[in-house]
Amino acid sequence: MIALESYEEQRSIQQDLTFVAAEAEFTLRSVAFGAAQMATLGFMNADHIYTNLGFILSDECVHIIKTAVFQDV
């Protein structure tokens, strides 16, 4: 049986990506952000090709992402 990749794991059509905003957020939180972390988080695959997840979190993505964090009270 062949395992299908999720959308986020698939190769991004656009490969000329920058991550200035993501890097600034990681730096603000004192978290390392480099090629190793990008690979671990799934921004790129084992062949160093950017994934759709990398595209979504890149500076080049024109879509708006909204998140919410809920905490037990």
Please characterize this protein's 3D structure.
The protein has one domain (1-73). The protein has helices at 20-28, 35-41, 52-56. It is 29% helix and 0% strand.
For the secondary structure, the number of strands is 0
Judging from the principal axes of the Cα atoms, what is the shape? Answer: globular
**Low-confidence stretches at least 5 residues in length (pLDDT < 50)?**
none
Largest sheet data: none
**What percent strand?**
under 5%
Helix content: 25-40%
How large is the count of helical segments? 3
Instruction: Tell me the number of structural domains.
Output: 1
The string of secondary-structure elements, in order, is: HHH
Q: What is the structural class?
A: mainly alpha
Mean pLDDT across residues: 91
Distance between the termini: 45 Å
Cα-based radius of gyration, to the nearest Å? 14 Å
Q: Can you tag this structure with a few keywords?
A:
73 residues; mainly alpha; 3 helices; globular
Quick structural overview:
The protein has helices at 20-28, 35-41, 52-56. By secondary structure, it is mostly helical.
Could you outline the blueprint of secondary structure elements for this entry?
Layout: H1 20-28, H2 35-41, H3 52-56
